[in-house]
Specification:
Largest sheet: 6 strands, antiparallel, barrel
Organism: Paenibacillus konkukensis
Distance between the termini: 20 Å
Protein name: DUF6916 domain-containing protein
Structural class: mainly beta
Radius of gyration: 13 Å
Number of domains: 1
Helix content: under 10%
Shape: globular
InterPro entries: DUF6916 (IPR054209)
CATH topology: Thrombin, subunit H
Strand content: over 45%
Length: about 100
């Protein structure tokens, strides 16, 4: 299990694959972008953009995500767009930085 969910953790696995557990089985997603929204010594605000297949569509909700390096994560994912070959999903983080 990922202990921090930090910006650096996700930047280190950019372009790698995640599996989201859904009602129709595991769905493979590719991490295509890690965007810093704001950062300060006290907090990190960033988002992940993941690309998924055309089917199945994953609605907005919590998902158990699995990653080879990061392990299991429970994350809230939102669909944000559709391209010609699949859907785009976003996960947003607002977290306090601890010493």
């Amino acid at each position: 299990m990922l202990s921090k969910d930090s910006l650096a953790d996700f930047q280190s696995v950019l372009y790698s694959r995640f599996q989201a557990e859904s009602d129709s089985g595991p769905v493979e997603l590719k991490l295509t972008e890690v965007e810093v929204k704001q950062a300060s010594p006290q907090a990190e605000q960033f988002s992940l953009l993941l690309k998924g297949p055309e089917a199945p569509f994953l609605p907005q909700q919590m998902y158990r995500m699995n990653h080879e390096q990061l392990g299991e994560l429970d994350l809230f994912m939102v669909p944000v767009g559709k391209g010609k070959d699949g859907f785009l999903y976003e996960i947003v983080f607002n977290r306090l930085v601890t010493g």
